[in-house]
Amino acid sequence: GKVFEIAVIPGDGIGPEVVAEAVKVLNFVTNGGENEVNLTNYKLGAEHWLETGETLPEETLENLKKHDAILFGAVGAAPGDTRIPSGLIEREMLLKLRFSLDHYVNLRPSKLYPGIESPLANPGNIDFIVVREGTEGPYVGNGGSVRTGTPHEIATEVSVNTAFGVERVVRDAFARASRRERKHVTLVHKHNVLVHAGHLWRRTVEAVAKEFPEVTHDYLHVDAATIFLTTDPARFDVIVTDNLFGDILTDQAGAITGGIGLSASGNINMSRTYPSMFEPVHGSAPDIAGQQKADPTAAILSVALMLDHLGLSEESKAVEQAVEKEITSRQELTDRRTTSEIGDAIVALLA
Ligand code: NAD
Ligand code: IPM
Ligand code: MN
């Protein structure tokens, strides 16, 4: 057997609550098997910054690099919290991790599980993945502000798209599509306006598509993509898109599949030079933190993605199946399950 070293970053708000359930499930599903999972906790996030002034020290980053994978909850203060500048933790901790560990594939699956009510009247069979670029785009922090605070202020956020960065994520999307039933890739961008980056993405898709003759592809402008995500989400199989469009579309994807509390993600370094990081799509949800109201399913499904990435595909499937059963069993309940009750129910189904 192998020993897997997993770093755990619970973070802020509901982060620690949902991560506790994810860890419960991870421990249960790997316990007694031939492999061992060794967890190390890291305290990072907005609360940690308030206590220590640290965002992500170099030494912590180096220690995180030694792990096989990272399980992450969520970080961030409440939008109205003035004690901490908005964006500080997001940029200096979370995005620093995604960039430093070269998480170029931000994988975000969307599936409408049986028994889940979609806010859409006719959702159809929703089952697609979003392959969101994770290291470039408007997220790189390439910009600034001059004459700040004056009527003449000019602020820029320049999106960076490299041929190398776009090609590797587009190739990953096609490779994933080739392993799926429908084998279809949709590029989402806005090349009618963002002509520089947009045409790079478009040319790259055309070029990479030639390597995958079995995969079909089409294109949607991002505004139209939001229409079809509402009117006909079942049409999508694999969406490939840039960092910002992918962020926005995956919150919408979460909403149409019954809530952001079910949406898992992986920040994946496919070349495995650094550990990949698995986290719910949602944030720290300050509005419901500390009340056992958060749905831990997104965090638990992130564990399934992590297990799959580590080569533990049987354990991964077992977790996903238990989650699916738990979701179905919710229909018969009169009261909502609490955060830990959902974790317990999933563990019971695994047993
Ligand atoms: P959010 O995802 O935290 O919350 C949006 C809404 O979804 C809220 O009403 C919340 O209660 C609900 N929600 C979220 N997760 C839920 C769950 N598991 N179960 C039930 N309901 C859930 O987004 P926000 O309010 O825009 O951001 C709050 C903070 O989180 C901000 O500081 C933001 O920067 C940060 N954030 C962090 C991450 C991350 O760490 N990956 C992701 C998104 C936002
Ligand atoms: C997400 C979040 C992050 C993002 C923020 C908190 C940096 O919204 O993981 O979707 O924009 O990627
Ligand atoms: Mn987001």
From TrEMBL:
Sites binding NAD(+) sit at 283-295
Q: List the residue(s) that the UniProt entry marks as the site Important for catalysis.
A: 139, 190
EC number(s) in its UniProt entry? 1.1.1.85
- SMART domains with a match to the protein in the record: Iso_dh
Q: What class of enzyme is it?
A: oxidoreductase
- Pathway annotation from the record: Amino-acid biosynthesis; L-leucine biosynthesis; L-leucine from 3-methyl-2-oxobutanoate: step 3/4
Cellular-component GO terms for this entry: cytoplasm
Q: Does the keyword Amino-acid biosynthesis apply?
A: yes
Q: Where does substrate bind?
A: 98, 108, 132, 223
Task: Report the locations given in the UniProt record.
Answer: Cytoplasm
Q: Name one GO molecular function term.
A: 3-isopropylmalate dehydrogenase activity
Question: What is catalysed by this protein?
Answer: (2R,3S)-3-isopropylmalate + NAD(+) = 4-methyl-2-oxopentanoate + CO2 + NADH
List the InterPro entries. ICDH/IPMDH, IsoCit/isopropylmalate_DH_CS, IsoPropMal-DH-like_dom, LeuB_actb
Sorted keywords for this record are:
Amino-acid biosynthesis, Branched-chain amino acid biosynthesis, Cytoplasm, Leucine biosynthesis, Magnesium, Manganese, Metal-binding, NAD, Oxidoreductase
Q: Where are the transmembrane segments?
A: none
Q: Which Gene3D superfamilies match?
A: Isopropylmalate Dehydrogenase (3.40.718.10)
User: Residue limits of the Isopropylmalate dehydrogenase-like domain?
Assistant: 5-346
Necessary cofactors: Mg(2+); Mn(2+)
Q: Name one GO biological process term.
A: L-leucine biosynthetic process
Q: How does it assemble?
A: Homodimer.
Q: Which HAMAP family match?
A: LeuB_type2
**Family per record:** Belongs to the isocitrate and isopropylmalate dehydrogenases family. LeuB type 1 subfamily.
Q: What is this protein called?
A: 3-isopropylmalate dehydrogenase
User: Which source organism?
Assistant: Glutamicibacter soli
